[in-house]
Design brief:
Blueprint (H helix, E strand, L loop, with lengths): L3 H40 L15 H11 L10 H18 L9 E3 L2 E3 L9 H22 L3 H32 L4 H6 L12 H16 L11 H4 L9 H26 L17 H11 L3 H22 L5 H29 L3
Antiparallel strand pairs: 1-2
Helix pairs in contact: 1-2, 1-9, 1-11, 2-9, 3-4, 3-9, 4-5, 5-7, 5-12, 7-9, 7-12, 9-11
Length: 358
């Protein structure tokens, strides 16, 4: 039988981080959809949700209650087991990816060192990419099990899109792993203590650009939202879903946005490293030195969250700005543009690493 001290240590090291992480994920998954509705509304000279709570602050709660109590309809000719399992696979894979993401360096709280992650995996990047690939099965299963031609077409589109864009994304990630010499996300952040990878010329900016485009496509977001094209496929692979199952797909989409944004922040923008204003050139000038000192005093986790929400805002900005691509254009971008550029970037990075230039 474990003694009381072992139980307390387990609660502190595992229980509390898991509860905090789940609370963070669920709160963001709820309120990011309100943020998106507000951002899109203001970009289109509208107000967005205003009636439920002050300026619509309780709208996500109202939506959650609606999803939970709305009738859950399963089509008569659907494969009921696969139909029910598909959204859970999609959600669990999105949840599981957060386990390997560090939200800051070790922090001392009440004299005890606390890790700001659930598991510090040596192959954290590979683990997250693998879960993203498995999540594709949830989309395919949803499209096939619905017994609906629009859902099936949306599932096929999503599978082809994710497979196509995972390749340039993987090459961009391997480029970062080469620069850092590790697949561990914490070590990737530490490798950027002197210079963020986004400014490691010439491979850093190109790898970041490739990852950003592939990340938008991987999450089925505009302008790459072909699997859900409402003008052609009603709602794509989740056309037949309603109630809480539809809510699961809806929530998992924002969770995937968060994962892609967190990885972009960690791999290219220094993770929880603070922003510094020209530290090498002008850092010694008193006003700029004072600003850099103030920026460095901000808690590291807040820096990571600020970068996270910057990328999420970028997602929303793109949705409000760009029209949807045709499917042939979507595939052309992946196979004829991103793939050769990403492969060339990886080869250049490997050559620079071997030559000792990075």
């Amino acid at each position: 039988m474990p003694d009381m001290q072992q139980i307390i240590n387990f609660i502190i090291t595992i229980g509390i981080p898991v509860v905090v992480l789940l609370s963070f994920i669920l709160a963001n998954a709820m309120y990011l959809q309100l943020m998106e509705r507000k951002v899109l509304a203001h970009m289109q000279s509208r107000l967005g949700p205003m009636r439920t709570g002050w300026h619509g602050l309780l709208q996500p709660v109202a939506d959650a209650v609606k999803f939970m109590f709305k009738e859950d309809i399963i089509p008569a000719k659907a494969d009921k087991w696969v139909f029910s399992l598909a959204p859970l696979i999609f959600l669990v894979m999105a949840f599981g990816a957060f386990v390997a993401i560090p939200f800051g360096p070790d922090t001392v709280i009440f004299g005890r060192t606390v890790h700001l992650w659930v598991s510090n995996l040596n192959i954290g990047v590979l683990y997250i990419v693998a879960l993203a690939g498995i999540g594709t099965y949830g989309v395919i299963m949803a499209g096939w099990a619905s017994n609906n031609k629009y859902s099936l077409m949306g599932g096929f589109r999503s599978a082809a899109q994710m497979i196509s864009y995972e390749i340039p994304m993987a090459f961009a990630i391997v480029t970062v792993a080469l620069m850092a010499g590790s697949l561990n996300l914490t070590e990737i952040v530490q490798a950027q203590s002197q210079k963020w990878f986004i400014i490691v010329f010439p491979v850093g900016p190109v790898a970041f650009f490739l990852y950003l485009i592939a990340g938008v496509a991987e999450t089925n977001r505009a302008p790459f939202d072909l699997p859900e094209a409402e003008s052609e496929l009603v709602a794509g692979y989740f056309t037949e879903y309603s109630g809480i199952r539809f809510g699961i797909f809806y929530m998992a989409e924002y969770m995937n946005m968060m994962i892609v944004s967190l990885l972009a922040s960690i791999m290219f923008l220094g993770g929880w490293m603070p922003v510094q204003i020209f530290p090498k050139l002008l850092g010694g000038i008193p006003p700029i030195s004072w600003i850099n000192t103030a920026l460095a005093a901000i808690p590291p986790t807040l820096w990571l969250l600020a970068k996270l929400y910057f990328f999420i805002f970028f997602y929303m900005w793109i949705r409000a700005t760009l029209p949807r691509y045709r499917y042939d254009q979507l595939m052309t971008i992946a196979w004829k543009i991103l793939l050769p550029i990403s492969l060339g970037t990886l080869l250049v990075a490997a050559f620079m690493k071997q030559a000792g230039w990075m």
